[in-house]
Amino acid sequence: MERLKSHSDFVTVFKRRRKVVANDIVVHYLMRGDTASLNRVEHAKSVELADDSGDGVASSRRLGLAVSKAVGNAVMRNAVKRRFRVLARTHESKLPPDCDIVMRAKPSAASASYQALDAQVSRLFHDISAKVKAKSGTASATGAKTGNASAGDRL
């Protein structure tokens, strides 16, 4: 799983305002292929990044971590980040391709057990996948309906 590195990548994910929530984790997500959510420049940039990966795989998932000082001191924040990275790699296959996610730790994540975080990440990644599938299914169905209705209105 690649990393989200630039500030603009984080801002793009947060601006989309799509998230799933658990007791100790909030996961913000963005589908890079969703051109309606990106402006042309950002979309071109994400396509360039996908094409320049060099490994022949254009679809990749990217992970960003946000752990505030409310979680604890630097040692605790880094421990939470290490756990999140391992859990994200473990459950990466549950995410749809071309997905950017930002995992944000709530203060309670510092005291949560690894098993509890594992269960939460598994459920959240599954929820993201289900929401993306549901949206892509309804978007194509409603797009066809609205397209026909608007054409009928013009006649």
Automatic annotation (TrEMBL):
<dbReference type="GO" id="GO:0000049">
    <property type="term" value="F:tRNA binding"/>
</dbReference>
<feature type="region of interest" description="Disordered">
    <location>
        <begin position="135"/>
        <end position="155"/>
    </location>
</feature>
<keyword id="KW-0255">Endonuclease</keyword>
<dbReference type="InterPro" id="IPR014721">
    <property type="entry name" value="Ribsml_uS5_D2-typ_fold_subgr"/>
</dbReference>
<keyword id="KW-0694">RNA-binding</keyword>
<keyword id="KW-0540">Nuclease</keyword>
<dbReference type="InterPro" id="IPR020568">
    <property type="entry name" value="Ribosomal_Su5_D2-typ_SF"/>
</dbReference>
<dbReference type="GO" id="GO:0042781">
    <property type="term" value="F:3'-tRNA processing endoribonuclease activity"/>
</dbReference>
<dbReference type="GO" id="GO:0001682">
    <property type="term" value="P:tRNA 5'-leader removal"/>
</dbReference>
<comment type="similarity">
    <text>Belongs to the RnpA family.</text>
</comment>
<keyword id="KW-0819">tRNA processing</keyword>
<comment type="subunit">
    <text>Consists of a catalytic RNA component (M1 or rnpB) and a protein subunit.</text>
</comment>
<dbReference type="InterPro" id="IPR000100">
    <property type="entry name" value="RNase_P"/>
</dbReference>
<comment type="function">
    <text>RNaseP catalyzes the removal of the 5'-leader sequence from pre-tRNA to produce the mature 5'-terminus. It can also cleave other RNA substrates such as 4.5S RNA. The protein component plays an auxiliary but essential role in vivo by binding to the 5'-leader sequence and broadening the substrate specificity of the ribozyme.</text>
</comment>
<feature type="compositionally biased region" description="Polar residues">
    <location>
        <begin position="137"/>
        <end position="149"/>
    </location>
</feature>
<dbReference type="Pfam" id="PF00825">
    <property type="entry name" value="Ribonuclease_P"/>
</dbReference>
<dbReference type="GO" id="GO:0004526">
    <property type="term" value="F:ribonuclease P activity"/>
</dbReference>
<dbReference type="GO" id="GO:0030677">
    <property type="term" value="C:ribonuclease P complex"/>
</dbReference>
<protein>
    <recommendedName>
        <fullName>Ribonuclease P protein component</fullName>
        <ecNumber>3.1.26.5</ecNumber>
    </recommendedName>
</protein>
<keyword id="KW-0378">Hydrolase</keyword>
